Amino acid sequence: MAKNLDFEQEKVISTIQYYGNNSSATIPIAMDTAVKDGRQITNRLSCVFLFTHNIS
Predict the structure, then answer these.
(1) Which of 7, 29, 37, 56 could, after both became Cys, cross-link 2 (CB 3.0–4.6 A)?
(2) Integer Cα distance of 33 and 15 in angstroms
(3) What is the rounded CA–CA span in Å between residue 7 and residue 27?
(4) CA-CA-CA-CA torsion for 49, 29, 18, 48, nearest 10 degrees?
(5) Closest C-alpha among 11, 18, 2 to residue 45
(6) pTM exceeding 0.70
(7) Signal sequence span per UniProt (predicted)?
């Protein structure tokens, strides 16, 4: 999705390769990953996209 929208890859946080599809936990995990990677996310406007698909 980010590639199709022409987002810079260094501004994209993707955790699916580490945690798989985790539904509602995706945003907190992504924010934690960004902080641990040293990305500045405080005092900034962030746009968050969450895509999930559950099969029960």
Answers:
(1) 7
(2) 8
(3) 18
(4) 10
(5) 11
(6) no
(7) none
For residue 9, what are its two tokens? 């890859």
**CATH of region 1-56:** 3.40.47.10
The CA distance from 36 to 31, in Å, is 9
Predicted pLDDT of residue 54: 61
Cβ–Cβ under 8 Å, residues 44 and 35? no
Residues 6+ away with beta carbon under 8 Å from 39: 13
Q: What's the pLDDT tens digit per position in 6-56?
A: 888 877 887 878 887 777 787 888 888 888 888 876 676 667 666 666 665
